[in-house]
Amino acid sequence: MRFLALNYGSEAAAATMSKAEQEAELTAYNTFGKEEAEHINGGEALHPTSTATTVRVREGRTMTTDGPFAETKEQLRGYYILQCKDLDEAIAVAAKIPEAKVGSIEIRPIVEWD
């Protein structure tokens, strides 16, 4: 089964990290990537929500707004696509994502179309 692991954390906290803290976080992510390579089918870090554009279509009219749809305390900072035998294994892998220690990881099964 494939799962999407959405990594949520505080952009404000990330912006105040020292160089050493940033390097430690990068090292933690690199270590996670190497240790869980068999489960990772893809993933990327995302630019801050200040770079986001939200698109809506209402009554046939396309509207865009800067930023995310709603104000939240945690922002989507990245994602992984995980290949796991079941939800329990996906939870075990997600618990090792560094963001889980300071933010949260949302796991969602990916629909497999025939």
TrEMBL record:
Entry-linked SUPFAM superfamilies: Dimeric alpha+beta barrel
The YCII-related domain, residue ranges: 1-113
Region (Disordered): 39-67
InterPro entries: Dimeric_a/b-barrel, YCII
Annotated Gene3D superfamilies: Dimeric alpha+beta barrel
Family: Belongs to the YciI family.
Protein name per the record: YCII-related domain-containing protein
Organism expressing this protein natively: Dictyobacter alpinus
